[in-house]
User: Fold Mitochondrial ribosomal protein subunit L20-domain-containing protein from Paxillus rubicundulus Ve08.2h10.
Amino acid sequence: MLKARFASNVSRCRTYATRRPEKPPARFPDPLQNNANATVTTLQDSKLTFIHRPPPTAPSPHSTTLDPASPLLRPATATGGPMPPFLRPSGYRPMPERLSKEDMVKLRELRLSDPNTYSRTELAKMFNCTPHFVSKIAAVPRSQRKQFAKNQETKHAAIREGWGERKATFMAIRQKRRQFW
Assistant:
């Protein structure tokens, strides 16, 4: 009455491997063995073996390695020779001159006398140097730096008060996203 169902399913099963489970390692022939032109020299004192194989073809008159125009035989270029162009336009700017000791002392005095008037960028323009250099040479005391940060934060808070609801929401989402970086 009831037929066994699995008997027909067994005949439909594949009973052989369709591929190898692993790719066999490549078996490249060793180019140094069975080479009639190779010269093998073994040192007796140590376990070193030197194998010299001549080039597979004889040098032809069309070979460029011994040609006088070959870059291998060309003499080294002089250091004062022409240089390739810079990749970035900033490379064309001349290096700023080094500040003298008197200028550094004056820079420190101006920065410490009134940090609001003589900011890093203002002093950098005055002395033709970078703002980073000004911050290294004439660092403001930590208490004043904290005061600057508080003033900056109050300015930013006043600007944030003028934002609409959408912008405030988007900025809050952006801040939250930055926390997960």
